[in-house]
Amino acid sequence: MAEFSTPTTEQEFDANFAQIKPLMSNTEALYESSRCLFCFDAPCIKACPSGIDIPQFIRQINTGNPTGAAKTIYEANYFGNACGKVCPTEVLCEGACVYNLNEQKPIEIGRLQSHATRKVIDSGHKLFGPGPANGRKVAVIGAGPAGISAACELRALGYEVDVFEARAQPSGLTLYGVAPYKITNAETLAEMDYLEQQFGYRVRYNQRISRREELQALEDTYDAIFLGIGLGATNALLLPGEERQNCVGAVEFIEQLRIGHQQVQVGKKVVVLGGGNTAMDAASESARMGAQDVVLAYRRGKDEMGAYEFEYDLAKAVGVKGLFNVAPVEIVGNGKVEGVRFIRTATVDGQVQAVPGSEFVEPCDMVIKATGQAKQTGFLHLIPGLQLDGKGRIVADARTGQTSNPKYFASGDALNGGAEVVNAAAEAKQTARGIHAFLSGN
Amino acid sequence: MPDLSINFAGIKSPNPFWLASAPPTNSGYQVMKAFDAGWGGAVWKTLGVPVVNVSSRYGGVNYRDKRLIGFNNIELISDRPLADNLREIEEVKKRFPHHAVIASLMVQSRQEWHDIVRDVTNAGADGIELNFGCPHGMCERGMGSAVGQEPEVLRTIVEWVMEVARIPVIVKLTPNISDVTEPARAARAGGADAISLINTIQSIVGVDLDLFAPYPIVDGKGTNGGYCGPAVKPIALNMVKNCAQDPDVRLPISGIGGIENWRDAVEHILLGASSVQVCTAAMHFGFGIIREMTAGLEQYMTEKGFHTIYDFVGKALPNVKHWEDLNLKYKVTASINEDKCIGCQLCYTACEDGAHQAIRLQEGTRTPAIIEENCVGCNLCSLVCPVEQCITMERTDDGTQHRTWKERTAADDIPVTFNDERAGGLHHWVPAPAAALGKERHKTLPGKARALGSPQDAVASKATDVLSAS
């Protein structure tokens, strides 16, 4: 394999992680927007979790009104630029484009969207501002897509908003968890600055809320508390040898990569455990960081992977090899990872069963576990009366986002168990209105 | 192999494709290059007393990503000395003796006309075209379209020219007139050998939204130009037809207006043109387009069994009638091919908002359905449908009946009072006006945004909305 040499400079890193949805020039945007049919009751809108009026903004781009286009986008989704770049558009808006049914290329909606939003972000042209102050205060825990979207909407509704963020920078997984070839740090943060400047919420960085007393203080100070806390660390496999050096969680690996870029070391041969989109990202990223071999190991068959097909295609395109119907038994090695002992599996009546006597060791010097993220149940149990479902997800009213503790509202991964940036942004906007309805008594 | 050659009022040309008098025929260099590429003839950039031009001369009309579907210019006639042009005409004719070189002329006095006609004849031109069409600049000085709009003046000048002309004379007509057959008849009365049309249409192709000035802008100002390009073809075709059908014109017609491929040329020919002239397409794409034009024309003629151009000149004219002669009993109904439909629903919204509410949406599918009893057969849905042959118009009358407005008038069978029972739409169902307001899906807000309630509904949005407030 080794299509990519290990990057040693920022330039080499950027080249290895070239954007898969690069910025459209004005000319390209004109040509692409010209193709839009302006469907009635357009399927792309229905496929968008945030319901952006896509034909409208495409038409606005086409008529030389990119500012109006950006306004249409941001009215529906405060993460308009990020979503244009990181959304799985292949299965959302672009997947719904009627051109697919005519075996024509669908409109590149994501790239058109970011084309318009980047223009207003770069120009600093303000589209919105805070509403008249209504004297009420809301605390937002977590500055990810859910938290920031809720903060924007609440500010538009006239609330004073303080955001408490454990990390040093905003936007959550958009900055810390998305593959670097989907969006750059600079453009992620530029959108965050753009929003903060318009809406004027306050973000307290490096302020992890983790104790009951801290929650109590928020409860005493604020009229409502929005939980946009997302998920926690990668689930432990509970396998022997998991503690060995170079056996890491995918979420943690990707976070390091987003912040450290070329400073991050990957092994020569990497085994990624898992079949979801995060596994695909981690595998692609390992290859682009110069790993000579990357093996994606999944305990079921290829067709049963949770990852989107286009994500697997992306990984295959950079040389990642699939190893299916295998379950890890042990991480072998001597201090450092030297391999993964697998056992072959068969799916019988929908159940994965080990095939006795089929154990083998796949040698490697790095293991990335992409086996799901844990829920932050320990923290959530500090909130009196907060109900969680059997999977540790917050239970809340589907329309208002209000939890079983009426002062608390929630959106995003902590509520839905883990979805896209666009889902969190859309849910949070709705929940902000739920908070408004609750506090204004209608 | 069909024969593409023509003999147009005595002007011989290896094919019917001529470059129109315009910037592409400004010099011998360009005309030789065009002949070398395959053009059959060229009408030289109009000669007269050399002009002085402005900088910033052309303006364009773009449609979405398509450039120059319309084009205009404020350039005047040749700004080069006559002697230079004559020398180059001579050189071109020596090198290309079988190609057609037509000298376009525009001068004022009788003496000037006599002199210049003799000069271009001596230079070897195969014919002369009188420019009575230019609608900008020259008309302010009493030439160009100022002549074309005054049939009596036009006739007088044609007579002056015919006093000395020894080669065929074509009169080029302006479309900036209510009835183009009037100057066409005047040209015939004056003794002209042929007509050519249309010259450009007076136009403003656009206004700069920041400078508040029309394109093309000359130091902050602009003027009307002459409009041409693909957008003008329908106007040109109608005027060519009008002249071709007029029993008092009866002159060979050189068709001009929006021709950029073989199909456009065939359309002009089917409506009566026996040569065609091209300018904008050559200015846009260069002389190389001639290969597609001749190849397409040849293939068309082969497939239709036409041996010469004259086998189909005017072949569509018998089918161009007055409205009152059309069969009112003919009926077509739209039909949607469900296998081809991609569900854009443009047909639905077009019919619903722009026609006769004869298409409905169906539960469980995005493919709309035709309400046949409401369909008047207007064609709109088939015109907006983006998929080839997905919506077709099928004939639904039995083809046995024929009744025209003229016949109904003669039979005293037409509506004559405001509420006449013979009103064509009397029994056509239309929804009650207030039914329009209950159509949730007609609102422009997208589905999910509506379901969630717009943020603008939730708050006094005017204050938060910086863009619309400013």
UniProtKB/TrEMBL annotation, chain A:
GO MF annotations, alphabetized: iron-sulfur cluster binding; oxidoreductase activity
Record-linked InterPro entries: 4Fe4S_Fe-S-bd (IPR017896), DPD_II (IPR028261), FAD/NAD-bd_sf (IPR036188), FAD/NAD-binding_dom (IPR023753), Helical_ferredxn (IPR009051)
4Fe-4S ferredoxin-type domain ranges (all copies): 27-60
A UniProt-annotated Pfam family: Fer4_20
Protein name: 4Fe-4S ferredoxin-type domain-containing protein
Automatic annotation (TrEMBL), chain B:
SUPFAM superfamilies: 4Fe-4S ferredoxins (SSF54862), FMN-linked oxidoreductases (SSF51395)
One cellular component (GO) term of this entry: cytoplasm
UniProt entry tagged with the keyword Acetylation: no
Region (Disordered): 447-470
Keyword Ion transport tagged: no
EC number: 1.3.1.1
InterPro entries per the UniProt record, alphabetical: 4Fe4S_Fe-S-bd, 4Fe4S_Fe_S_CS, Aldolase_TIM, Dihydroorotate_DH_cat
Ranges for domain 4Fe-4S ferredoxin-type: 332-361, 366-396
Keywords linked to the UniProt accession: Iron, Iron-sulfur, Metal-binding, Oxidoreductase
Reactions catalysed, as given in the entry: 5,6-dihydrothymine + NAD(+) = thymine + NADH + H(+); 5,6-dihydrouracil + NAD(+) = uracil + NADH + H(+)
UniProt-recorded Gene Ontology molecular function terms: dihydropyrimidine dehydrogenase (NAD+) activity; iron-sulfur cluster binding; metal ion binding
Entry's family note: Belongs to the dihydropyrimidine dehydrogenase family.
Self-association state and partner proteins as the record states: Heterotetramer of 2 PreA and 2 PreT subunits.
Function recorded in the entry: Involved in pyrimidine base degradation. Catalyzes physiologically the reduction of uracil to 5,6-dihydrouracil (DHU) by using NADH as a specific cosubstrate. It also catalyzes the reverse reaction and the reduction of thymine to 5,6-dihydrothymine (DHT).
Name of the featured protein: dihydrouracil dehydrogenase (NAD(+))
Source organism of this protein record: Hymenobacter edaphi
